[in-house]
Amino acid sequence: MLHQNFIAEMFVGKDPEASYTPDGRFVVKFPACWSRDAEEKIWFDCVVWGNIPTSDKPTTKELGAFACFVSEYVKEGDRIMVFRGRIKGTADGKPRTWEDKEKVVRSASLELVVFELAITQAKADRPARTPSMPASSSEDVSEESSSLAAPTAVQPGDVFSQYVSKNSK
């Protein structure tokens, strides 16, 4: 069997739902979306497998620490980085599709079994945008809030110095 390694940054579409399979295994599921731009999006049905607990009041370790972490800390709107995962389609290897009443395919999704992820930016930590606020504006960013440091020296003939001298007149 070939080893598959999947790495992607994506947004969580809904809070994770924790449940148990019929055989008692702890499982956490949530949808996540990867997109290149507004037009190109791929949705994944993410699955994090835990363990089959042996006690009535299972501990985090017994359920599976990673599955418990995802269940508790990953939230809708969070930006996550999946470092290790395996993509699964249908039995014939194709994405699952959803058709409307007119038999038009409206969406397709793949299952992504997640083995390792990190929350790269919680939704609560991102600044809220109003509809009139531009996507990025250098005028609104102060030096204190900017994560980019101003250049300390500009070499003659450098592209940045040409840009600054041209736009400061």
Description:
The structure is a single chain. It contains three helices and seven strands; from the N terminus they run E-E-E-E-H-H-E-E-E-H. The chain is mainly β and 169 residues long. The chain has a domain at 8-125: Nucleic acid-binding proteins (OB fold (Dihydrolipoamide Acetyltransferase, E2P), Beta Barrel). Strands 1-3-4-7-5 form a five-stranded mixed β-barrel. Strand 2 (17-20) and strand 3 form a beta hairpin. The protein is globular, with a radius of gyration of 22 Å.
Radius of gyration: 22 Å
Instruction: Output the helix-strand order.
Output: EEEEHHEEEH
Query: What does the largest sheet look like?
Result: 5 strands, mixed, barrel
Number of strand elements: 7
Quick one: CATH class of the domain at 8-125?
Mainly Beta
The portion of residues assigned to helices is 10-25%
Low-confidence stretches: 132-169
CATH homologous superfamily caption of the domain at 8-125: Nucleic acid-binding proteins
Strand line-up of the largest beta sheet: 1-3-4-7-5
Backbone structural class: mainly beta
**Share of residues in strands:** 25-35%
Tertiary shape: globular
- Please, how many helices? 3
The appropriate CATH architecture of the domain at 8-125 is Beta Barrel
Termini separation: 64 Å
Oligomer: single chain
CATH topology of the domain at 8-125: the name is OB fold (Dihydrolipoamide Acetyltransferase, E2P)
Mean pLDDT: 77
